[in-house]
Every structure is written in C-alpha cells, then in structure tokens.
Design a protein that fits this description.
By secondary structure, the chain is of the alpha/beta class. The protein is built from seven helices and seven strands. It has one domain: Glutaredoxin (3-Layer(aba) Sandwich). The relative contact order is 0.22. Its EC number is 1.11.1.24.
C-alpha cells in the first residue's frame, strides 16, 4: 500500500467524517439482514447475520480499509477482547468494502484469526446500515450491537477507533444483566 493511499484514507476518514452530519441507525431499530463473503483465519465462508444471531448477540463493526493505521489498531483491539466477547456469548464481525483476497490476509495478520471480517465490496450492506463515508468510497467507522431479536441496542459512530470495543462490551454487559444465557 502506498503512502498516498494511507494519506488519502487518513484525510478522508479524519476530516470528512468529522463533518459528517448523519447518524448511524438508531438504537431499538431493526437490524437489516445480510449475507457476505467473509474470512476467519484466512479461510473464506459465507457470513449470515441471521444465522449468527441464532447463537447470540452480534457486534457488527464497519471500518474504512484493511491495513490502514486506525483499522489495524481497531482489529488488534477487537482481537485482544475476543475472550470477553465470547464470555458474553457474542459474535464479532468486521465489515469493510475491501476485496475478500485482502480480508483473507487481514483476518490472519491483524485480526489474529480471532474473529471474522466480511467483504462488502459494493457497499450495499454499509448503505443499509448508514455506514458509508459521504463520498461513498469507504465504510464509515460505526459499531453496532445487535440482539438475537434483530434489534440494535448500541449504535456508536466515531472516526477514532479507540472506544468501539469498550462501548460494545459495555452494551453487551448491560444487555446480559437482563438476558442471562
């Protein structure tokens, strides 16, 4: 990846998203169902939100582009927290508009084979979740927690990657208090 791509993505996600006026899908709204090609540990499969929700809540996070600095940090943060997510019965899936070949590598190196990442190459799912940058080139950095009844209980948008894991874990912990396994 070239320096100029890093710079362009940084400028796009840093300055343009800071001015973004729209909000992510609201809490309590129904989560749109989707199926996307995904990779976990370099192995590809078809990720279905409907199927994942049958096992428990899902943390769905959108990120601009694999192997960029902020997205790499965020993937590391999610990977480090996977034991906590599993203890809460949650599945984590990251979604970007990258190609699946790129995500196969990203899933092993940056996600450390701990959670799956999915390829939304045409941005259709990001659009359903109001998770596109204003120029529609990348996914915006937005995280959701979705319960097995298809309801969004947390919607968090911040171009910085440092609070997404913390916010998702807090939402799951609160939900678990009233929904023990």
């Amino acid at each position: 990846m070239t320096f100029f791509r890093f710079l362009a993505i940084g400028l796009l996600t840093g300055t343009v998203m800071a001015d973004q006026a729209h909000a992510a899908l609201p809490v309590h709204s129904q989560a749109p169902s989707f199926t996307l090609p995904a990779s976990l540990g370099g192995n590809t499969f078809s990720f279905s939100l409907t199927d994942a929700l049958k096992k428990g809540p899902v943390v769905l996070y959108f990120y601009p582009a694999a192997f960029t600095p902020g997205c790499t940090i965020e993937a590391h943060d999610f990977a480090e927290a996977m034991d906590q997510f599993h203890a809460l019965g949650a599945t984590v899936i990251g979604v970007s508009m990258d190609k699946i070949a790129t995500l196969k590598k990203f899933s092993t190196s940056e996600c450390r084979s701990r959670f799956a990442v999915a390829a939304d190459t045409n941005g259709a799912v990001a659009t359903q979740y109001d998770a596109r940058t204003p120029d529609a080139t990348y996914a915006a950095r937005i995280s959701y927690v979705i319960t097995p009844d298809d309801r969004i209980i947390m919607s968090y948008e911040d171009r910085k990657s440092d609070k997404h894991v913390e916010k998702a874990l807090a939402a799951l912990q609160t939900w678990r208090q009233t929904h023990p396994e």
